[in-house]
Each structure stands twice: as structure tokens, then as C-alpha cells.
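Per-residue structure
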Amino acid sequence: MLVGEYDDLRRRLTRRLGSEDVASEVLQETYLHLERSSLMSVIDSPKRYLLTIATNIARMRFRRERRLTSLSDLDKALGFVDEAPDPLRSLEARQEFEALKAAFDELSPRRRYILFASRLEGRKLREIADELAVSQRLVEKELKAALMFCGAKVSRDVIRRFGPGAREASSLEVSPVPATREDRHDDAE
């Protein structure tokens, strides 16, 4: 019955479901359902019976898809999204990390110390200057040079705000400021 009326059933289901592909898939599931079914009684209207089975299968499928979609949306809203990086991001991160390690190795010992002390340990530039017995301005220049060098090695832009208050300025969105006479003089050194 299903095979003989397949085209007519698919056309009717396509109208009901709005998609020929979905109608074909539902008819396939209907065939599988009938294959597994052990009920072999006389049916008054076989075509209507097949359409009912197919429509019920389509409803179950739509509910299942809607529930899965709702659950994935809920997971995203609650923050249960898989944060694990894909293989490409992992590879890029490893390569960037290796480039940064190589950049650290190329820094002078003083620049490396200043960079680690200020950025990793969170120490104040004044403390570092006192410890190294140099001016705070020299520590600022060394830190700037170290950050610019490391940023270039990993192809990253570096925030160009250094000195006292740099941490607060780094957390704000900074608009470009024209260089002062002092900055131009420092860059020439």
C-alpha cells in the first residue's frame, strides 16, 4: 500500500508539513514503523491510517527538534557552552605561546625582569626603579621597549600607555593622543 501510494502520500504530506524533504523522511520512518509493527489487523482506510502515522511521526520529530533547540539555547543562556578551543585555535595558541617564549628569551635580562615584575607580579614601576637603582623614566622606557618587541613577535598591537596610572588607563578605552615634544625626544634616543 505504502509503495503503491508513495507519490500521492508524499504530495499530501508535503502540503501539510511544508517541505518535500521532510515529507520523504517521514514516509521512510513510517515504512520502518510498519515493518517493526506486529499489528496486522484489517484497516478500514489504509491511506488515512498511513497519513495519520506519518503526521504523528512528523509531530514527534518537530517536538524533539524544538526541545533540543530549546535545550541548546538554554545551555547557552546559562553559560554551559563548550568553551574548549577547536584544534585550529589550540594550534594557533601554541604557536603564539612559543613565539612569545622566544621573544622573552631575546629580551635583555633587565627588560625581561622589568616586564615580569610589572606585568606578572603587578609591582609598581617606582619600586622596580628603586630596586634597580635607575630612574622610573628608564624603567618606563625599558618596559615600553619590551612590550613593543614582544607584541611585534606575536603580531599584536600593544597599548601605548606607560608610566604612573598605566593600569587604570589600560582598562579604559583610550583614544589616540598626539605625541608631545617629550615623547618625540624620547623616541629619538
Q: What stands out?
A: The chain has a mean pLDDT of 75. Residues 6-78 form one domain. The radius of gyration is 34 Å. Residues 46-78 form the longest helix (33 residues).
